């Protein structure tokens, strides 16, 4: 037991350390303000390359030529600075005016093949004297093929080092966005003497309606509608709760807690997105609260499904010895989902994020699979219990719940397949404008399941149709289905139940026979006593 306890403590400690490391990996709460903090350039073919950001941007509205930013979509360079090494400055002549070139290139993703000489079957990105004879380009600059349908794009902005200066500031300017699309910003260097150059500063990206990135903009409206939906559900549940407060069972309090958590979650997310959209920055505190409420609500929702599947409050008054295992699974799930949420929402905002969060997605996916396995295993046992007890009303209730849960699992699997296809598709063909429906679907699915539970276990004047009742005779006490038990043990458990039911039936029949024999003996004794009494009367 001590070794098992030590193993559980080490496992939990490992998850906690992972949570701390994930939190420490968060550099800043980025917004549509992309910050660069002494970031190095990396080698890309024959150039040095730095990815400055990527977002889906909508076209500026036609009547947006006023001095305010309302209705305008743009990318603004704000205090961007390049710093080169001392070794590179020692190799130049201080009398030279331009001693190093850094190019900022803004392009729409569909024009990505117009960067470099790939259109001329070359792998080069920078123009060389040989390539300048074959194609129209300037030696020492990035090769860009202009888009005939959109003159002036991809956009090129040049910044030169002067003399022996180690630092150069980029001119503050804004680039207006006049067509909807996925935009990328690259900083590129073709001069090999500028190896080791770093960048610092920030760029500001804005959509016509605010600073929310293109993929996130519809989520503010979505969470606004979800807030109203949770408010309506909470109001209906509260009125019914108050009306039948004398007949409330323990399960109703758990359902109320999930509804309250859901209301807080969607409300906080709405205000977080609204603040983000108006200011262009994400306060760490508000975002942390939103992520924490989401993790708590997801954990409590899964625990609610699990305890309902175990028959808590319907078949059994308590969970017994299985309570510790349920709470441990819930705690581990909370830590994993909290770490994933922090990494997703408190990092720099790029509409195409990297795959570093895959490490944190896998534990959450595994724990979700554990919940699903345990829930359906528990449902199987609960249905067997109700069928043995001939509790037809409760059996029908749980059959409806099982069918609803099965439909949600099928929809989840189908949606996961679609999500994998969506994320694996080529970025140039990804429909980023509808990408918001991926997180929105999971919120709608959990809300639909909550509505099903509220309907099936709604407070009524006569809660005996789902309230736990004391059973005698053949009832048996089990702790539920253990998370470590195999599904293959279920037939053995069912066979044991049938054996116990058969034994109980035989015992009842034996008791009946004994009662019949006792009744016959009493009748014979009464008959003999009557004859004796009549004989005495006749003699007297």
TrEMBL record:
<feature type="transmembrane region" description="Helical">
    <location>
        <begin position="216"/>
        <end position="239"/>
    </location>
</feature>
<protein>
    <recommendedName>
        <fullName>GOST seven transmembrane domain-containing protein</fullName>
    </recommendedName>
</protein>
<feature type="transmembrane region" description="Helical">
    <location>
        <begin position="326"/>
        <end position="346"/>
    </location>
</feature>
<keyword id="KW-0472">Membrane</keyword>
<feature type="transmembrane region" description="Helical">
    <location>
        <begin position="434"/>
        <end position="458"/>
    </location>
</feature>
<feature type="domain" description="GOST seven transmembrane">
    <location>
        <begin position="218"/>
        <end position="463"/>
    </location>
</feature>
<feature type="transmembrane region" description="Helical">
    <location>
        <begin position="251"/>
        <end position="271"/>
    </location>
</feature>
<feature type="transmembrane region" description="Helical">
    <location>
        <begin position="358"/>
        <end position="383"/>
    </location>
</feature>
<keyword id="KW-0812">Transmembrane</keyword>
<feature type="transmembrane region" description="Helical">
    <location>
        <begin position="404"/>
        <end position="422"/>
    </location>
</feature>
<dbReference type="Pfam" id="PF06814">
    <property type="entry name" value="GOST_TM"/>
</dbReference>
<feature type="transmembrane region" description="Helical">
    <location>
        <begin position="291"/>
        <end position="314"/>
    </location>
</feature>
<keyword id="KW-0732">Signal</keyword>
<dbReference type="InterPro" id="IPR009637">
    <property type="entry name" value="GPR107/GPR108-like"/>
</dbReference>
<keyword id="KW-1133">Transmembrane helix</keyword>
<dbReference type="InterPro" id="IPR053937">
    <property type="entry name" value="GOST_TM"/>
</dbReference>
């Amino acid at each position: 037991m001590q070794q098992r306890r030590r193993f559980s403590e080490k496992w939990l400690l490992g998850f906690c350390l992972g949570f701390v490391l994930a939190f420490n990996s968060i550099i800043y709460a980025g917004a549509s303000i992309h910050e660069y903090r002494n970031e190095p350039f990396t080698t890309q073919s024959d150039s040095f390359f730095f990815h400055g950001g990527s977002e889906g941007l909508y076209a500026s509205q036609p009547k947006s030529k006023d001095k305010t930013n309302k209705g305008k979509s743009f990318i603004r360079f704000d205090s961007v600075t390049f710093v080169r090494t001392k070794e590179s400055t020692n190799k130049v002549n201080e009398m030279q005016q331009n001693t190093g070139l850094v190019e900022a290139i803004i392009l729409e993703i569909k024009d990505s093949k117009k960067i470099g000489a790939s259109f001329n079957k070359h792998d080069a990105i920078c123009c060389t004297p040989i390539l300048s004879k074959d194609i129209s380009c300037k030696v020492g600059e990035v090769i860009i093929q202009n888009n005939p349908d959109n003159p002036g794009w991809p956009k090129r902005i040049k910044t030169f080092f002067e003399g022996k200066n180690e630092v150069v500031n980029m001119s503050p300017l804004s680039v207006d966005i006049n067509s909807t699309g996925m935009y990328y910003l690259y900083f590129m260097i073709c001069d090999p003497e500028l190896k080791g150059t770093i960048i610092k500063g920030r760029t500001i990206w804005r959509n016509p309606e605010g600073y929310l990135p293109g993929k996130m903009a519809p989520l503010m409206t979505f969470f606004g509608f979800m807030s109203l939906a949770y408010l309506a559900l909470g109001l209906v549940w509260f009125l019914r709760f108050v009306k039948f407060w004398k007949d409330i069972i323990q399960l109703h309090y758990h359902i109320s807690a999930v509804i309250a958590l859901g209301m807080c979650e969607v409300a906080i997310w709405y205000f977080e997105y609204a603040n983000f959209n108006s200011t262009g920055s994400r306060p760490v505190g508000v975002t942390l609260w939103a992520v924490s409420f989401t993790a708590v609500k997801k954990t409590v929702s899964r625990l609610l499904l699990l305890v309902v599947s175990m028959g808590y409050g319907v078949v059994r008054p308590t969970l017994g010895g299985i309570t510790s295992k349920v709470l441990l699974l819930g705690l581990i799930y909370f830590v994993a989902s909290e770490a994933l949420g922090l990494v997703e929402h408190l990092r720099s905002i790029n509409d195409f994020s990297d795959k570093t969060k895959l490490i944190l997605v896998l534990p959450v996916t595994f724990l979700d699979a554990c919940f699903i396995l345990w829930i359906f295993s528990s449902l199987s046992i609960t249905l067997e219990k109700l069928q043995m007890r001939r509790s037809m009303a409760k059996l029908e209730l749980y059959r409806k719940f099982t069918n609803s849960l099965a439909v949600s699992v099928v929809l989840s699997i189908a949606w996961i397949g679609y999500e994998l296809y969506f994320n694996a598709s080529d970025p140039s063909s990804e429909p980023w404008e509808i990408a918001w429906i991926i997180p929105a679907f999971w919120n709608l699915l959990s809300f639909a399941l909550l509505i099903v539970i509220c309907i099936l276990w709604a407070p009524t004047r006569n809660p005996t149709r789902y309230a736990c009742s004391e059973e005698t005779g053949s009832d048996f006490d089990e702790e539920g289905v253990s998370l470590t038990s195999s599904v293959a043990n279920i037939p053995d458990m069912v066979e044991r139940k049938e054996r116990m039911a058969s034994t109980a039936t035989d015992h009842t029949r034996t008791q009946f026979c004994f009662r019949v024999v006792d009744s016959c003996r009493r009748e014979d004794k009464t008959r003999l006593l009557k004859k004796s009494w009549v004989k005495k009367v006749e003699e007297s």
